[in-house]
Design a protein that fits this description.
By secondary structure, the protein is of the alpha/beta class. The chain has 14 helices and 12 strands. Strand 6, helix 8 and strand 7 form a beta-alpha-beta unit.
Length: 408
């Protein structure tokens, strides 16, 4: 293939707290997250506690632990603990809300062309079953300003709009949407909002009361670095009686009056391993202890490095940034020049061939995004504290060499 392959780059010293393979340049924290070793150790202790005496754990110890985790998470996301329930992931949270609401023929459900595919599928399923219509606001990309998002969404509101499903941070384009402004202006027109905040907790500061969405769901396994299977669903009190979990279990006819039906149903959906939820307090504490300025400094550190890495890649490839700095958090996308966009989909895989080449030949794990910009692919970088700018320099060197090779 290539006659000269650049040397790999070292990650940051913080990698010592993760079990990621040191030989892989891992630039894709955004897809599934990665759990630090101290948090995995806490989870293992909880699992041992569960297995030593399962009846004692589930009947006597579990609920106080769950309430403690919920209380700490509520403080972190700016909510009351009574407004939160745990779900395995944000997609489950979106499904729980969409499948609880009763849509009628003629109703419109508003979303954007940048909505995460799994949640868009759930939206299409619910709308099709009810005879409702999915209305898609076309947000242009590349994009010049957050105001463009607001204009595109509000232009598609009609008297029939029942609900808006919006990302807080888009997955494929890594855009921070002006979610508080969107929620506020939609509310003025009588439209409630379901926010898919899969990437937001731990990437950007969150205050759910200030955002004002009726429904908000976010992952804790991504930028919060909790174990997989940890996410939350926030529902404002006036709508909690309408929202049911996807699995109906014992809480549906519980005689307890000390907790809301909302929490009684979501808190027990059948026997499962709940330790991911219970590790959220340790994730908040541990990640918040890494830098002197706590979480705010960690988020800023990751954002600054993401912007620097984006600039480095754009300069190396001779392309322009597709969005303003203010719409970037700890992820960014970079359009690839034509000489690197010629790679087609890898047969029998769900990812482009270029992504496979980067991994198999150069040990770089980074997603290549297809289908957003017509006839052009993009590369999406993620930054967590274990990454170093040298790793993005290595990625840039490899992409430039592949570009030269394709031009020969």
């Amino acid at each position: 293939m290539l006659k000269h392959v650049p040397a790999s780059a070292a990650p940051s010293p913080w990698l010592k707290f993760w079990s990621l393979e040191p030989t892989v340049t891992f630039l894709n924290h955004g897809s599934f997250g990665a759990v630090p070793l101290p948090i995995l150790a806490v989870q293992q202790k909880l699992r041992e506690q569960l297995e030593r005496q399962p009846l004692r754990f589930f009947l006597r110890e579990f609920e106080p632990l769950l309430e403690a985790a919920r209380s700490e998470l509520a403080v972190f996301v700016g909510a009351d603990s009574e407004e939160l329930v745990f779900v395995p992931n944000a997609t489950t949270g979106v499904n729980a809300v969409l499948r609880s609401l009763f849509f009628q023929p003629g109703d419109e459900i508003l979303t954007t062309n940048l909505e995460y595919n799994a949640c868009r599928n759930a939206l299409d399923f619910v709308a099709s079953r009810a005879g409702a219509t999915v209305v898609v606001a076309q947000v242009p990309f590349p994009i010049q300003s957050p105001d463009t998002v607001v204009e595109a969404v509000l232009a598609r509101v009609s008297p029939r709009t029942r609900l808006a499903l919006l990302d807080h941070i888009t997955s494929s384009t890594a855009l921070i949407l002006p979610i508080q402004q969107l929620v506020s202006q939609l509310k003025q027109q009588g439209v409630e909002t379901l926010v898919d905040g899969a990437h937001a907790p731990g990437m950007v500061p969150i205050n759910l009361h200030e955002i004002g969405a009726t429904y908000y769901t976010g992952n804790c396994h991504k930028w919060l670095c909790a174990p997989k299977g940890a996410a939350f669903l926030y529902v404002q009190p006036h709508q909690q009686s309408q929202i049911r979990p996807l699995t109906i279990s014992h809480g549906a006819n519980s005689s307890r009056t000390d907790k809301s039906r909302f929490q009684l149903e979501f808190d027990w959906m059948g026997t499962d391993d709940p330790t991911a939820y219970l590790c959220i307090p340790e994730a908040i504490r541990f990640l918040g202890s890494l830098l002197p300025g706590g979480w705010l400094e960690l988020m800023q550190n990751n954002r600054v490095q993401a912007l620097a890495a984006r600039q480095l890649l754009c300069q190396a490839l001779g392309v322009s940034p597709p969005c303003p700095d203010e719409m970037i958090g700890a992820m960014a996308v970079v359009p690839l020049p034509d000489t690197l966009s010629r790679y087609e989909q890898e047969p029998h895989h769900n990812w482009p061939l270029l992504q496979e080449i980067l991994f198999k030949q150069f040990d770089i794990e980074v997603p290549v995004i297809d289908g957003i910009i017509p006839f052009q692919q993009m590369i999406r970088i993620s930054v967590q504290i274990y990454n170093s700018l040298d790793q993005y320099e290595y990625l840039a060197q490899v992409l430039v060499q592949l570009q030269k090779h394709n031009s020969e």
